[in-house]
Specification:
The chain is mainly α. The protein contains 15 helices and no strands.
Length: about 300
């Protein structure tokens, strides 16, 4: 994680450093004088060489978890991100639950009944889910459930009723991906010798699927869920803006529109950090899911003890 995060930090800082435009002119406005702009640059350390600014920025992140101060809002970027992160986290968890709860069972059924009508239906759902743009589906859901039926709110944050439409709109692509991934993983596993052996011993089909096949098909599925969850935590740019959710995604869009360079680079690095944590947890989870990986680690530990 450390080299990846360091590389992301250097890359985004370099891109923001060489972006055309004068930060002092953006912050102070076109009516400011050259003296005022120069004084602002000096106070913010913008006159320092590139390498010194980069070193100071990385040092502040490592020692203080400080992503700088927003040029436009004048508040700490870290504070703004931490304030908005729980809202994005709620949407991310809801999205993963919907995508996991619908996509994986549908993919399992499609694999068991391969080439049947159920399988074709699941593949059709997968194709439609991948093809639909998020903003289009979000607008359709708002028009139907918020405007016409008036069952659910269309904007803002509040109780669970505010999370239903954003999570469904955000989970469409995830459902499609989980269907295809689960189907392909289960098709590989259910043809394995140990599954055939379990059936020959008289184990019920349900137990064969749940206790023998599904755990061994979980590795690619968990990876896909981890990728989805990490991406959702990074901020759902479209969904948060359509539904008026003040999360990380909406914060990044506002920072980009306002050319708030500090907020932009701080948001990207924070997203990379969160995504890295999620993928690290997914990697650690492999050992608990797949007994082959666990046995491999235990074998290495045993060999080291034997050598000692």
């Amino acid at each position: 994680m450390i080299p990846v995060l360091l590389g992301v930090t250097i890359l985004i800082f370099t891109l923001m450093y060489f972006v055309p435009g004068d930060v002092a002119a953006i912050v102070l406005g076109s009516s400011s004088t050259d003296v005022q702009r120069e004084a602002y640059r000096e106070s913010m350390g913008l006159n320092e060489p590139y390498i010194i600014q980069l070193f100071q920025y990385i040092k502040n992140i490592v020692t203080k978890l400080d992503f700088g101060t927003s040029y436009i809002q004048g508040i700490s970027v870290t504070t703004a991100l931490l304030e908005r992160f729980p809202r994005t986290l709620i949407i991310a968890i809801g999205t993963v639950i919907v995508g996991f709860g619908i996509g994986i069972p549908l993919g399992m059924v499609a694999a068991v009944y391969q080439d049947s009508l159920v399988d074709k239906f699941a593949l059709t759902v997968s194709l439609v889910g991948v093809s639909m743009p998020q903003f289009w589906l979000a607008e359709i859901l708002i028009m139907l459930f918020a405007v016409q039926l008036r069952w659910l709110p269309s904007q803002g944050m509040g109780g669970i009723e505010y999370q239903i439409l954003p999570c469904i709109a955000n989970a469409a692509a995830g459902i499609a991906g989980n269907v295809r991934l689960t189907r392909s993983s289960m098709l590989e596993v259910i043809r394995a010798d140990y599954v055939t052996t379990a059936r020959s011993k008289g184990v019920s089909e349900f137990n064969v699927l749940i206790r023998h096949a599904f755990p061994n098909a979980l590795i690619p599925i968990v990876t896909g869920v981890g990728n989805c969850f990490g991406a959702m935590l990074g901020g759902t740019l479209i969904i948060e803006n359509v539904f008026g959710i003040p999360g990380i995604g909406a914060y990044m869009v506002k920072a980009i529109n306002a050319r708030d360079y500090t907020a932009c680079q701080g948001s990207v690095i924070f997203v990379a950090f969160v995504f890295g944590i999620v993928m690290l947890l997914v990697d650690l989870l492999y050992a608990f899911i797949d007994p082959r990986i666990k046995a491999q680690y235990e074998g290495k530990k045993a060999s080291k003890k034997h050598e000692e």
